[in-house]
Structure to design on (230 residues):
């Protein structure tokens, strides 16, 4: 038994290595892209809509409402980034029902990459909303002595995002693998269902934390502007 799909090397040539994490990550992205193309190729604006379009609209509206609930103004502005994070994590974790599949989120390299995406997006959204000077000013409020603490906070929460997701997903996969070898069939099935629930919760928490961090970057936004109704 291995601790991470990174340890399963499928191909290697010199410094180039293709491991199971990379293959599964691209497989999940391919499934998401193809699904989006198939669902959106015949979108209807009338009252007659396909079941898939209805499902897609429910997911989009639910995510948009969650973003607005965090306090982000113009929730649709952040929908593409945060929804992509959530859908990738959710799909990665839901596919654990497939025999032989290991979630790429059980790899520290994947969770660090996702956390770095959040780390980069926060200042980008903040600068777009407040301008470069306005955003950088937030690092020294209410006093310049807060600068090192603010930087440490930015770095530590990025590390916490990566470690939290990695730890939960890796431990869940290991527990299921151990139970499959030492217990009858029924109990591992229950644990697999529990693992699916845990995976969805982790996808939700990761996405909501990303939204909270972005909202914090916009904290100096003038209070006269209110979020539009969703």
């Amino acid at each position: 038994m291995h601790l991470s799909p990174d340890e399963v090397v499928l191909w290697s040539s010199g410094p180039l290595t293709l491991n199971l994490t990379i293959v599964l990550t691209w497989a999940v992205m391919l499934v998401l892209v193809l699904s989006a193309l198939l669902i959106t190729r015949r979108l209807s604006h009338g009252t007659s809509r396909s079941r898939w379009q209805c499902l897609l609209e429910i997911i989009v509206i639910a995510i948009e409402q969650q973003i607005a609930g965090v306090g982000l103004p113009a929730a649709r502005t952040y929908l593409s980034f945060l929804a992509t994070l959530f859908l990738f994590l959710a799909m990665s974790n839901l596919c654990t029902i497939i025999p032989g599949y290991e979630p790429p989120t059980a790899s520290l390299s994947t969770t660090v990459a996702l956390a770095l995406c959040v780390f980069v997006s926060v200042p980008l959204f903040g600068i777009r909303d407040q301008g470069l000077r306005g955003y950088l000013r937030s690092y020294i409020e209410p006093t310049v002595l807060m600068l090192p603490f603010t930087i440490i906070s930015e770095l530590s929460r990025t590390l916490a995002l990566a470690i939290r997701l990695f730890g939960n997903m890796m431990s869940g996969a290991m527990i299921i693998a151990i139970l499959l070898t030492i217990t009858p069939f029924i109990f591992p099935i229950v644990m697999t269902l529990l693992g699916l629930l845990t995976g969805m919760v982790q996808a939700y928490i990761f996405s909501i934390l990303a939204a909270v961090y972005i909202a914090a970057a916009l904290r100096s936004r003038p209070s006269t502007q209110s979020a539009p109704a969703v």
User: Anything to note?
Assistant: The longest helix spans residues 147-182. The beta strands are 9-13, 16-19.
